[in-house]
Amino acid sequence: RVFPPGAPPGPGAPAASAGSPPASLGPPPLGPVNPALRTGSARPTAEEAAEDCSVPADAVLIPLREALDACRPTVQKQVCEDIGRRLTVLGDMWAQGKLSAPVRKRMSLLAQELEQRSWDAADEIHRSLMVDHVNEVSQWLVGVKRLIAEIRNLPTGEHAEPRDDKTESVPDQE
């Protein structure tokens, strides 16, 4: 414990002054605990949030990697490699438990929107992640943003068919 200079606590003195935040370790506060304060709170505890989002990483990473594979024929190799590296960082952070439940949940929703080709909804989820969780997602979310942009630019129908802008508009030109 750290005490202010010249003020060692006497027997029965409180562990912390009234103006300082509660210590992370130590005895629980004295007095009854109002259960309504815990159950009625807007923010779930870390344990509750973890229960709310038990999404496996593959439920997110597989659709993202499939989208990347669909882009490969039409997107520059270097761009695809960068997106792939960032998806690997996402997967590593997920596996190491470094992503919070809200981030995992939103990424699950984003992957579902990509699978349904709801580009605007996926982009909106991306923006909300960047605003609300920038420190947690900044290493890999740029790759997800680029992936959304590239997959949305693919020609509809055949995702794997390469696009040639010179001949696409005029088919039988000989």
Structural class: mainly alpha
**SSE order, as H and E?**
HHHHHHHHH
CATH class of the domain at 57-153: Mainly Alpha
Number of helices: 9
* CATH architectural arrangement of the domain at 57-153: Up-down Bundle
Spatial shape: elongated
Binned strand content = under 5%
User: What fold name stands as the CATH topology of the domain at 57-153?
Assistant: RNA Binding Protein, Prp18, Chain A
Radius of gyration: 25 Å
Low-pLDDT stretches: 35-52, 158-174
User: The biggest beta sheet, please?
Assistant: none
**Percent range of helical residues:** 40-55%
Number of strands: 0
**Average pLDDT score:** 76
The CATH H-level superfamily of the domain at 57-153 is Functional domain of the splicing factor Prp18
Q: In angstroms, what separates the terminal alpha carbons?
A: 86 Å
Task: Describe, in plain words, how this protein is organized in 3D.
This protein is mainly alpha-helical and 174 residues long. It has a domain at 57-153: Up-down Bundle (RNA Binding Protein, Prp18, Chain A). The chain has helices at residues 35-39, 46-52, 57-71, 77-95, 101-115, 119-132, 134-137, 141-152, 165-168. The relative contact order is 0.11. Residues 35-52 and 158-174 have low confidence and may be disordered.
